Task: structure prediction
Amino acid sequence: MKTSLIVAMDIDRGIGKNNDLMWHLPSDMRFFKETTSGHVVVMGRKNYESIPEKYRPLPNRENVVLTRNQSYVADDCTIFHSLEECLNYYESEEERTIFIIGGGEIYRQALEMDVIDEMYISHVNHSYGADTFFPEFDLKKWTVESILEQPKDDRHKASFSVMRYSKK
Ligand SMILES: NC(=O)c1ccc[n+]([C@@H]2O[C@H](COP(=O)([O-])OP(=O)(O)OC[C@H]3O[C@@H](n4cnc5c(N)ncnc54)[C@H](OP(=O)(O)O)[C@@H]3O)[C@@H](O)[C@H]2O)c1
Result:
């Protein structure tokens, strides 16, 4: 099993506000879609509910929703009641990568459990006044490689860089 994490954060490590994203960056959305398509995406219940109904479940991916609510249902999604139970279930998965796609609570637990092999982080060069943040992590444990640079343009009000962090 390979476990990856994908996130976009601003210069304050902000990832969201009022249970929503804070920016519209089409090339980052495309990068997210291309990177996660065909794989398994694992998300917290709040993140799942923040996706507009017409866009969920995310197409061409197995959507996994984590909730502690034993009676929670989400159409065409796989539900688990702990991250541990979820990762155990996919332990022998060889074909697909398990992508942790947030939000804040799920990112924090995945990093604390030390189960992430690689991270794709879009660093957005702006401050948006977030209420939800990506946790601090020890840079020394990761090898960093730049994989995409998006300058500010008509469709992107902020520039961003996508970096790939591989566990040393
Ligand atoms: N910028 C980005 O890349 C990015 C990506 C994703 C999300 N976001 C943003 O992040 C925000 C949402 O993040 P959040 O931290 O508020 O919520 P979240 O992590 O999406 O979801 C939290 C919920 O997940 C469930 N949960 C958490 N830990 C669990 C566990 N160990 N076992 C089972 N269920 C568990 C609980 O659901 P129940 O309450 O149902 O038990 C909890 O309330 C939004 O603003 C969203 O737009 C940003």
In short: The helical segments are 26-36, 45-50, 83-89, 104-112. The pocket of NAP is lined by residues 7-8, 15-16, 19-21, 44-47, 50, 66-69, 81-83, 101-106, 109, 132 (CB under 6 Å).
